[in-house]
Design brief:
The chain is α/β, with parallel strands linked by helices. The protein has one domain: Rossmann fold, CATH 3.40.50. The chain contains six helices and six strands; from the N terminus they run βαβαβαβααβαβ. The protein is globular.
Length: about 180
Amino acid sequence: MQGHTASDPAARIFHFVMIKPTHYDDDGYPIQWMRSAIPSNTLACLNGLAEDARARSVLGPGVDFRLHTFDETNRRVRPDRIIRMVRRAGGRVLIGLVGVQSNQFPRAVDLARPFLAAGLPVCIGGFHVSGCLAMLPEMPPDMRAALELGISFFAGEAESRRLDEVFFSRNGMSCVRSA
């Protein structure tokens, strides 16, 4: 990872990469459609919340807040290309695997691996994480394994400026690392 100084233009760039993962078929292949009839509502809502955070300059004035959305049900997600894109531009980055349902959790973890190997922070949110944390007496093994890989979880809704807390920690330091 590169370190950036305050005078470095790349230090003023923040990438929020939102990926809505698909799930695997019975043979272990990701299910994708050439054309999707219904786009991901979760992805659209989270993008809108991130747009609001950008408009309110939650990361400070002058930060080039770049939003990248990928719906894997109708678009091939290439982590290697996303990593190259954010590294070429520089700055800080957060990879969000969003709206993850229980059948999509294994795919989300698999998508997270190359980002983690590249030193980029990954967060998974959605029904699986929220439901398991809210209703089960203990965290299931798949989630414990994901935590051990270095994946963070987001439980609940991102509204009411909760997404801001992900972008910016309580002590005024950004919680994301440089690309």
